[in-house]
Amino acid sequence: MDFLIYLICLGVGLLFTLLSFLFGHHFGGGHEAHVDGSHGHAEAGADSSDMPGISALSPTVIAAFITSFGGVGVVLKQFSATKSPFITAPLAAVGGLIVSYSLLWVLRQLFSRTQSSSESKIANAVGTVAHVISPIPENGVGEIAYVQAGTRYTAPAREETGMPIPNGRAVKVVRVIGSQFYVIGV
Questions:
Q1: Are both 100 and 47 inside the same structural domain?
Q2: Could you tell me the pTM of the whole model?
Q3: Which residue among 73, 98, 114 closes a domain?
């Protein structure tokens, strides 16, 4: 009876993998969803961590566990030393955990290395030298341009003490509140 359970787990896992491969692209990619806090896309699951990539409870990882649990169970039932379900079941569970954790680790490594953004990190702009591209009037808002990580950005700016700054002048970003940059002349 326990051999049948392992065989069913192996079959269900393989069938899920095959169907995901065949139909995943045609029906919207299967299980990709936005995870709040991760600022990007990740495979759906019950994990809302800031870890980019894939959840430990995603359908792919669960299917890997079920498939490997069944496969290891089927193999272990072939040996006389491991025919007892009290030996086979725990070993199959450990085998399933090892395979699914290994898959999770590989996918997380892959996703973490491919997650990037060309967006500027505004907090890193403090201390940056910028140039005024639209004059900053007294107690008013103008516009600055600055370069960060090789990319040029523009932002609304105010002079820290409310003084006017003419166009073309170099300034230093001293603080950022929301999207408003506060600058001083250099």
A1: yes
A2: 0.50
A3: 114
Please state, in angstroms and rounded to a whole number, the distance separating the CA atoms of residues 32 and 40. Answer: 10
Q: What tokens were used for 148? A: 């960060």
Domain boundaries, position 36: 2-114
Based on the domain organization, do 98 and 38 belong to the same domain? yes
- Of 96, 114, 132, the one marking the end of a domain is 114
> Residue for token digits 């001293």?
174
Query: What is the separation of C-alpha 89 from the centre of its chain, rounded to a whole number of angstroms?
Result: 34
The pLDDT tens digits for 157-172 are 999 999 999 999 999 9
Distance (Å, whole) CA 110 – CA 21 = 19
- Percent of the chain exceeding pLDDT 90 equals 40
Question: What is the residue whose two structure tokens read 């065949």?
Answer: 22
Structure tokens at 32: 């990709």
Based on the structure, what is the number of domains in the chain?
2
Measure the CA–CA gap between 128 and 157, rounded to whole angstroms: 13
| Residue 174: closest CA among 159, 162, 153 | 159
What are the start-end ranges of the H helices in 1-154? Answer: 2-23, 59-76, 85-114
Residues 82 and 122: their CA atoms lie apart, in Å, by: 60
